[in-house]
UniProtKB/TrEMBL annotation:
It comes from Agromyces bauzanensis. It comes from the Bacteria. Keywords: Carbohydrate metabolism, Isomerase, Magnesium, Metal-binding, Phosphoprotein. GO terms for molecular function: beta-phosphoglucomutase activity; metal ion binding. The keyword Phosphoprotein applies. Gene3D superfamilies: HAD superfamily/HAD-like (3.40.50.1000), Putative phosphatase, domain 2 (1.10.150.240). Its cofactor is Mg(2+). This is Beta-phosphoglucomutase. The keyword Cytoplasm does not apply. Residues 1-21, 263-297 are annotated as: Disordered.
Amino acid sequence: MTAHDTSPHSMNPPSESTVPQNLDLSGIRGYLFDLDGVLTPTAVVHMHAWSRLFTPYLEEHGAAPYTDADYFAHIDGKPRYDGVRSLLASRGIVAPEGEVTDAPSDDTVHGLGNRKNDAFNATLAEEGVEAYPASVAFLDAVQASGCHVAVVSSSKNAPAVLKAAGLADRFEVVVDGAVAARGGLPGKPEPDTFERAAELLGLPTTACAVVEDAESGVKAGAAGEFGIVIGVDRGVGRDALEKLGADVIVDELDELIPAVERAAATSADLDTRPAAPGGATRPANDPSPSTAREEPA
Ligand SMILES: O=P(O)(O)OC[C@H]1O[C@@H](O)[C@H](O)[C@@H](O)[C@@H]1O
């Protein structure tokens, strides 16, 4: 398929055109990056924090033990309190909702989420974070090609993680968990946060690539009318990512740099052609600036 192909995502084996070497990204003018697990290895920090919360909690409740598979199936990529709700539902546990202001020691949905958040922030402060070098190389190539870039993260900690990784100034738009909550946007697996980022970049969704590693995030990409869904396999598995709707799957994003450079060259060729009678056409990678920027919380 090409990046323009908006046909329903199939579950067939990848065709020749969906392998990174043959990928056509010439219709893509914006990249919407998930953060945790795509740009930074913080999906693992989230995963450990959830485990620090739910391992003792499930034991105390006599429920089946918490495993990494639970993280991928019920929590990965979702907004904080949705993750709590999904995991509790998987064990048939009903907890009171409580309030966002609940203490981390409270056994409410919000208290449990806040307990996990304390664990996440403690690890972040202790260990810091370094972006994946291959993802930064891809980001460099995408920006050099004139495409626009946004971060779309369920996490309310996204601004802190971007800052810790030295990436805070690289994105025109950040739609994080706080922005979504303020705007009443449903989180992943719904496509709304990605759609909002495309809108803020001033691009149609069909001209945007969704870049995701989580089940809920790939589902969100497949549920919208995006130009392409790029899956990064950080543990979900290639087959699962493909079945969920990823159009191309990579282990590291730098595998796609040649495709980005080919797309930029195609666009430059188009740009040097004489304008068609009756008006010029906008090149695929027209770097005209997006003025919209949603400030993170
Ligand atoms: O940092 P917050 O706001 O608790 O966000 C939670 C979620 O943020 C996502 O980005 C992670 O991929 C999730 O796995 C995590 O649970």
